[in-house]
Design a protein that fits this description.
heterodimer, A: alpha+beta, Rossmann fold, Dna Ligase, domain 1, five-stranded mixed β-sheet, B: 2 domains, about 0% strand
C-alpha cells in the first residue's frame, strides 16, 4: 500500500501519520523512490548486517553518551537508524527562515526583559512569568551583550503533524546538545552506506565548527580575530562529554574544565605548562548556576570563581549568555507567537503546538477536564522527564498527574497529543513506521546561520512518541536536498 | 595559521600519565610472562609471590582478600579490577586520561585504546590457565605496542608529545629496575653447577622479557656473568629498556622543551635527571652487586620518583585549585603510602564520582 516501499516492506503502513518518505512531495523528485529502490537492492539482511557494523563502529570510536543510573555509569551509543530522513529544498527553506525568525525574536525578547521590559509593561507577557522564573538572572539587568546576542547556539525542536505541517515543540536556548550526532551520522552514512547516497546532492553539514568558531570570535571583547576561544565542559563525567570533545576539535580550541581557568583582576586565564594565558571567549557547556561559585551555587566545583565579574567587566565573552533559560521555559514558550509578533511585526513562519497554560485558571480547568486527551509537561524539566501522555496513561498515572497539577499548577502546561510524523525505520520486526522530530541548530554571532538539517530523533519502539535518547530514542541522518525538483518532469 | 600551540597543564599531566599507565600494562604483562618461566615444580608460590613483592603490593594483596598462591597472584594482576595496580585498572586509568585528552589525540589513537580497553575488561579466569596465560600476555603486550605504533605515526609532535614520552620513559626505567629485582627475589639452589645452570636460565628469561636476548648475545662475552646482564639492563646505551637510555631520553626531552618551547621551568627536573644519570654510571657494577643490588635498585626507583615529582611541580601542579577535604584523599593515593611505585591517578581524578553539572537539555 505504500507504493515505493513495496519491494522492501510490503506491509509498511503509516496509518494516519505523515510519512516523511512515502508521502508525495512534489519537490522531492525522484529521491524517495531512489532511496527505496536502493534499500531494496541491499535487502533486509544486508541492511541489518551493515547497521550492526555501523553501531559497533560507533562504540569503537566512543561516539557515546553516558547514562547514570544509581552508582553506575554506562557509555551508550545513540542508536542509529540507517534509513535517512529526507527534507526537500522548499521544506528546508521554510525551516531555515522560521528558525532564524524564532532566534531573532528570542534575542530581542531577552534584550528587552533584561533592560526596559517593555513587553511586560505593554501587558503582552505576564510579569510573574519573567520575574518568578527560576532561570531569570537579575545579574543580567542592564548588562549589554555584543550584537544583542544572548542565544548564540539554539536548538529548536520541531515536529510535523498529521497534515505535514511543521510545529515548534520547544526552544532550547541554554546549552542544547546533539549537534555532534548530526555530523557523526553523516560521516557514518558516508562510510557505511555510500551506495544509498550516490548521486544525490545534499547540503553539507561540515561547516558547523568553523561557523561556531567565527561566532565566538565575533563576540570576543574588541572582536579581535586572534581572540583565544575555549570550550568549557563540566568534564568527562558529563553525559554530553563526547560532544564537547567533538566541538572543541571542530573549532580547534582547547577544551577546558573549571579548574583550568582562573580570574585575576577581572581577567580570565587558563593554566598552561608555560603559565597563565588569557582567554577571551568561553563557549560554555555547563548551566548558569554552575558557572561561578561566587555568584551562583557556592559548592560548585565545576565553575570558575570570579568569572561573572570578569564578564561584567567586559573582559571575556560567555556563550550562551547567562539568563537565557527565562526564554526557553515551557511557560514562556506558550507566548512565543505573541513575542514574535510583538518584536518583528510578523506572523510566526512555523506555529507552536496549541498550548494550555495551567497557571491560568482557564488553562488549568481545560487541562483537568481533558487530562486523558492531553499531554501534560512540567515547565522546568527537560529530556522528556515528567511528561504524562493522557491517551496512553493508566488510571493511576492520570491520578498522579492530576495531583501534581493541582499541587503546583504554575509548573505545568498541556498540549493536545500531536500525531508526530513517521519515517520507515529498521526495527527487529523489519521496516516499519516510527515517530520522529527534528532539532535544527542555529548559530548566532552578528548574524544567524542554520546548520542544514539538524538532528532527527526517532522513537525506536513501535508506536512510541518519546524520541529522547535517555528514553530509548535513536537518530537518523537528516538529508536536506540541495536541489529542488519542483516542475521537473 | 598560528602554530604557537597552547598546552593546558592538566592535559600535559594527562599525557604523562596515560603513557605511564600503558607502559605499566606492557611491563606487567612482561613480568607475568617471565614469572611463569621462573616457576619450578614445588616452588610456584615463591615465584609468583615475588611479583607481589617487587611491586610492593603485599599489603594491597592481602587487603583484597587474596592468599599467596599462584592463581591468586594471577587474578590479582589480570582480572581484579578493584586492585589499583592490576592490568585492567591501569588500562581503565589510561582510558580515563585518554578521554580527557581526546581533543589532542588522533581518532585512531582513541579508537585503539577504546577497543583494547574492552578486550582487557573481558579477560576471564579461563584465560589465565595453562598455555592461555602466555598467549594472553602476548596480546596485552601487543595491545600496548599497537598503541605505541599508532602514537608514533599520528600524535602531533608539539609539547604534548614530549610529556607523553617523559611519562613513558620514566615508567619504563622504573619497570626495568623491577624486572631486575625479580631475580633477587627468587630462591636458587645453594651452589655448585646446579646453581650456575639455574641462574643462567633465569637471566635468559629476563633478557627475553625485555626482548633483549639476541642483542645481548651478540654483544656479551660467550661466558657471561651476572655483572654483564645487570650492566646491560642498567646502562647499555642502546638497549631500549635500559635505565640509562631512558634517563638520557628524559634529559633530551627536557632540553628540547627548554630550547624549542622556551619552557625554562625545567631546571629542577634537569638536575634530578642529571643526578640520576650519575647514580647509574659512577660505580662499577661489581661494587653495586657487592653492596646489594636490591638496595641499589630501590635508590634508583626513589630518584625516578623525585624526577617525576620535579616535572610535576614544574609543569602540572599549577592547574589544580586548592582541594577541599573531600577531594584530597582521591588526589594521590601513592604519596601517602610511601611506596616506591607511585599510584597517583594523575589527571584522571579531576572529578570524583559523577558531577553531571546540570543536565544538558533534552538530549540527556
Amino acid at each position: 500500500m505504500s507504493g515505493i516501499l513495496d519491494g522492501l516492506a510490503p506491509e509498511y503502513d503509516c496509518g494516519r501519520y505523515f510519512c516523511e518518505l512515502t508521502k508525495n512531495r512534489p519537490d522531492a523528485g525522484p529521491v524517495p523512490g531512489w532511496l527505496a529502490e536502493r534499500l531494496a537492492k541491499i535487502g533486509l539482511d544486508a541492511l541489518r548486517g551493515r547497521a550492526a557494523a555501523a553501531e559497533t563502529e560507533l562504540i569503537d570510536l566512543g561516539v557515546t553518551f553516558t547514562v547514570y543510573s544509581d552508582a553506575t555509569a554506562i557509555d551508550r551509543i545513540l542508536p542509529f537508524d540507517c534509513i535517512p530522513r529526507v527534507l526537500t529544498h522548499s521544506e528546508w527553506d521554510l525551516l531555515e527562515r522560521a528558525c532564524i525568525q524564532r532566534v531573532t525574536a528570542l534575542n530581542l525578547f531577552l534584550g528587552d526583559i533584561y533592560t526596559k521590559a517593555k513587553i511586560v509593561k505593554d501587558g503582552v507577557v505576564p510579569a510573574e512569568l519573567i520575574y518568578k522564573n527560576a532561570n531569570y538572572r537579575p545579574e543580567m539587568q542592564d548588562f549589554p551583550v555584543p550584537h544583542g546576542t544572548y542565544v548564540h547556539v539554539c536548538g529548536i525542536d520541531i515536529i510535523r503533524d498529521e497534515f505535514g505541517d511543521f510545529r515548534v515543540l520547544e526552544d532550547n536556548a541554554r546549552t542544547p546538545s546533539g549537534v555532534s550526532y548530526v555530523i557523526e551520522n553523516r560521516h557514518l552514512m558516508l562510510r557505511s552506506f555510500p551506495d544509498l547516497m550516490a548521486g544525490i546532492k545534499l547540503r553539507p553539514v561540515d561547516d558547523y565548527g568553523r561557523r561556531l568558531r567565527a561566532a565566538m570570535t565575533e563576540i570576543a571583547p574588541h572582536g579581535d580575530p586572534d581572540s583565544q576561544v575555549v570550550l568549557l565542559s563540566p568534564g568527562i563525567y558529563n553525559s554530553a562529554y563526547f560532544e564537547h570533545v567533538f566541538l572543541a576539535r571542530e573549532m580547534g580550541v582547547p577544551l577546558v574544565v573549571g579548574p583550568d581557568l582562573f580570574v585575576e583582576n577581572d581577567r580570565v586565564f587558563m593554566r598552561t605548562i608555560n603559565g597563565p594565558r588569557p582567554v577571551h571567549t568561553i563557549y560554555r557547556r555547563l548551566n548558569d548556576d554552575f558557572l561561578d561559585p561566587q555568584v551562583f551555587r557556592p559548592e560548585s566545583m565545576l565553575g570558575v570563581p570570579g568569572l561573572i565579574g570578569a564578564w561584567k567587566a567586559g573582559n571575556v565573552a560567555i556563550a550562551n549568555a547567562v539568563g537565557t533559560g527565562v526564554a526557553d521555559d515551557k511557560a514562556v514558550y506558550a507566548y512565543m507567537p505573541r513575542i514574535i509578533k510583538y518584536y518583528l511585526a510578523e506572523e510566526p513562519l512555523i506555529q507552536n503546538v496549541q498550548t494550555n497554560i495551567c497557571r491560568e485558571a482557564e488553562g488549568l480547568q481545560y487541562t483537568l477536564d481533558n487530562l486523558d486527551k492531553l499531554v501534560t509537561k512540567p515547565v522546568g524539566e527537560s529530556g522528556g522527564y515528567g511528561i504524562t501522555i493522557g491517551p496512553r496513561a493508566s488510571k493511576e498515572e492520570l491520578a498522579v498527574a492530576r495531583a501534581s497539577l493541582l499541587a503546583d499548577p504554575a509548573n505545568w502546561i498541556s498540549q493536545p497529543l500531536v500525531g508526530l510524523s513517521v519515517a520507515p525505520t529498521l526495527g527487529e520486526d523489519g521496516i516499519g513506521p516510527r515517530h520522529l522530530d527534528l532539532r535544527p541548530f542555529i548559530i548566532t554571532g552578528k548574524e544567524s546561520w542554520v546548520l542544514p538539517g539538524g538532528l532527527t530523533r526517532v522513537a525506536m519502539k513501535r508506536g512510541s512518541l518519546i524520541v529522547n535518547s535517555s528514553q530509548g530514542g535513536g537518530s537518523k541522518d537528516t538529508w536536506v536536498l540541495a536541489e529542488s525538483f519542483e516542475g521537473a518532469a | 595559521m598560528r602554530f604557537d600551540s597552547v598546552l593546558l597543564a592538566r592535559d600535559a599531566e594527562g599525557l604523562f600519565w596515560m603513557a605511564r599507565y600503558l607502559e605499566r600494562v606492557e611491563n606487567l604483562a612482561r613480568l607475568i610472562d617471565v614469572t611463569q618461566s621462573f616457576e619450578s615444580p614445588g616452588r610456584e608460590t615463591e615465584a609468583w609471590f615475588g611479583l607481589i613483592r617487587i611491586n610492593a603490593d603485599e599489603k594491597n594483596f592481602l587487603e583484597r582478600g587474596f592468599s599467596p598462591d599462584a592463581d591468586h597472584v594471577k587474578q590479582f594482576y589480570l582480572t581484579d579490577k578493584g586492585n589499583r595496580t592490576s592490568i585492567p585498572a591501569n588500562l581503565e586509568d589510561a582510558r580515563t586520561n585518554a578521554r580527557t585528552l581526546r581533543p589532542l589525540m588522533s581518532t585512531e589513537m582513541w579508537r585503539q585504546i577504546n577497543v583494547f580497553h574492552r578486550f582487557v575488561s573481558q579477560i576471564k579466569p579461563a584465560d589465565l590457565e595453562g598455555d592461555q596465560l602466555s598467549r594472553l600476555c602476548t596480546k596485552l603486550r601487543e595491545g600496548v605496542q599497537a598503541h605505541t605504533g599508532i602514537t608514533e605515526g599520528t600524535l602531533y609532535r608539539d609539547q604534548g608529545w614530549y610529556f607523553y614520552h617523559l611519562g613513558r620513559v620514566i615508567e619504563r626505567a622504573d619497570q626495568t629496575t623491577r624486572l631486575l629485582d625479580i631475580k633477587y627475589m627468587t630462591l636458587l639452589p645453594r651452589d655448585g653447577e646446579e646453581r650456575r645452570v639455574a641462574e643462567l636460565t633465569q637471566w635468559n628469561a629476563i633478557l627475553r622479557a625485555v626482548a633483549g636476548y639476541h642483542a645481548f648475545k651478540r654483544h656479551a662475552r660467550a661466558e657471561f656473568s651476572t655483572d654483564d646482564v645487570v650492566e646491560y639492563l642498567l646502562r647499555d646505551p642502546s638497549q631500549p629498556r635500559s635505565v640509562l637510555l631512558c634517563v638520557r631520553r628524559v634529559e633530551f626531552y627536557l632540553d628540547d622543551l627548554r630550547r624549542i618551547y622556551g619552557l625554562s621551568r625545567s631546571h629542577e627536573a634537569m638536575e634530578a635527571a642529571e643526578y640520576l644519570r650519575e647514580i647509574l654510571t659512577e660505580k662499577p657494577i661489581s661494587h653495586i652487586l657487592d653492596t646489594g643490588l636490591h638496595h641499589y635498585l630501590d635508590t634508583v626507583q626513589i630518584h625516578l620518583q623525585i624526577l617525576a615529582g620535579a616535572i610535576g611541580r614544574a609543569f602540572f601542579r599549577d592547574w589544580r585549585p586548592p582541594a577541599p577535604d573531600w577531594m584530597s584523599q582521591t588526589q594521590s593515593q601513592g604519596d601517602a603510602e610511601g611506596q616506591s611505585q607511585s599510584q597517583s591517578v594523575g589527571a584522571a581524578t579531576d572529578m570524583p564520582g559523577k558531577l553531571p553539572g546540570g543536565r544538558s537539555e533534552a538530549m540527556a
